[in-house]
Amino acid sequence: MAQKTRIGLGLAALGRPDYINIRSHTDIDKSVDAFKTNTLKILDEAHKLGLRDFDVAPSYGLGEQFLLEWNKTRDHKDIRLSTKFGYTYVANWEIGFKGKHEIKEHSLAKLNEQWEVSRAFLPRLNIYQIHSATLDSGVLTNTAVLSRLHELKEKHNVKIGITSSGTAQEKIIQEAQKIAFDGVGLFDSYQVTFNIFEQSTSTILKELIAKEKTVIIKEALANGRVLSNTNFKNYEVAYDYLEALSKKYDVGIDAIAIRFIMDDLEPTIVLSGASHIDHLKQNLKALDFGLNGDEIVQLKSFAISAQDYWNERSTLKWY
Predict the structure, then answer these.
(1) Which domains, and CATH codes, for the chain?
(2) Inter-residue contact 126 to 81 (CB < 8 Å)
(3) pTM exceeding 0.70
(4) What distance lies between CA 214 and its chain's CA centroid?
């Protein structure tokens, strides 16, 4: 089956001991050594399974450090790496950290500070992104930051991108598309939260894809909420239908959720957030089948309002 969409691996859950997720296992070894060993093992297996796109950020705990070591020691010539600037990890590997695990700062000083680390990914660095660009942070009107990103783009031949979250994703993308240097748009890549429940950016993402922009989908499993869970009674009808599709295609619900994005949206990349090899292999089963038109329409009907989705997400715990 010819694939328009690639599956990549995001390291959000691999580089830090606590993350927003609905985990089915909580008895994992959370030491730095255990996480490093697991991350390198998963990166090796991912490459063996055909994945070539790997996404990280400075705020993913030690994720950048792990990926940098893997990149240096394996020296694969066929991989595409992406990272970001704008968030700093401050939990210092403290299990059950009570405060904010990451702090946002979209300043020129933070960009330059984090670039000094991230530049070590060159020449495998494919995309450099503003992490969770928002309208209120002012980053999309900060001439110094935007000019510096343009400079990095020209000097190092990297794509410049944004990642987005929250209820204003569509507006953020609209504003980002207006930013240009010498008549050429600054942003080549858009990493967006999109899944069965959060489809508010569907129209604008299809427009970006038609313009041949790189579109990367994150949180395809809605931080685990697409998986049947008695805590989310509001999704019972969706859970029943997902279970029926899971049985029909003999794959996990995770693969159904990823395949929905591939068939409905046809983005450049959908990121797997797997933190175990078995989960990664299950995610990759999305490549082995296709949903029909009626099934896509039914899955689209489970979308909720962006406001409700992000309000619900804000209640999820880090553990």
Answers:
(1) 6-313 (3.20.20.100)
(2) yes
(3) yes
(4) 13
